[in-house]
Amino acid sequence: EGEIYESYKIFLGTLVSEPRLRIINFLRRGKKNVTEIMEKLKMGQTSVSHNLARLRKCGFVLTEREGKFVNYKLNDNTIKPLMEIIESHMGKHCVHILRSMKEKGR
Fold first, then answer.
1. Among the residues of 17-63, which ranges form H helices?
2. Which residues of 62-72 are buried (b: 16+ CB within 10 A; e: fewer)?
3. What is the pLDDT of residues 3-37, one digit of tens each?
4. Which helix (H) or strand (E) holds 101?
5. Which of 19, 22, 51, 93 is 20 to 30 A (C-alpha) from 41?
6. How far apart are CA 55 and CA 49, in angstroms?
7. CA-based torsion, 16, 22, 23, 27: positive or negative
8. What is the rounded distance in angstroms from the CA atom of residue 75 to the CA atom of residue 64?
9. Cα–Cα distance for residue pair 76/79, rounded to 1 Å
10. Which residues, including other chains, have CB under 8 Å from residue 72's CB and lie 6 or more apart?
């Protein structure tokens, strides 16, 4: 049971990072190389590479070599459908919390 709990922490810790979430959401549109990710997300090369390494190590993204470029894409079998489920859930159950917080801040 302890190993499962620690695995949850690694998985959810990978998912909770804002830079990694931004990369994941950008890769939902298709495969991209590091330069494309850097330019679109306005992130430095070191940050992009570091976050992609974590995403790759945890199986969130896969790599494909195309000539001199390495392209990254979401794991279509697990992460892509998971992100669709999460987005649907958030739309039904979480967005109202965010909207309520914004209204209170007015």
1. 18-27, 34-41, 45-57
2. beeeeeeeebb
3. 999 999 999 999 999 999 999 999 999 999 999 99
4. helix 95-105
5. 93
6. 10
7. positive
8. 12
9. 6
10. 23, 27, 31, 32, 33, 34, 37, 52, 55, 56, 61, 62, 63
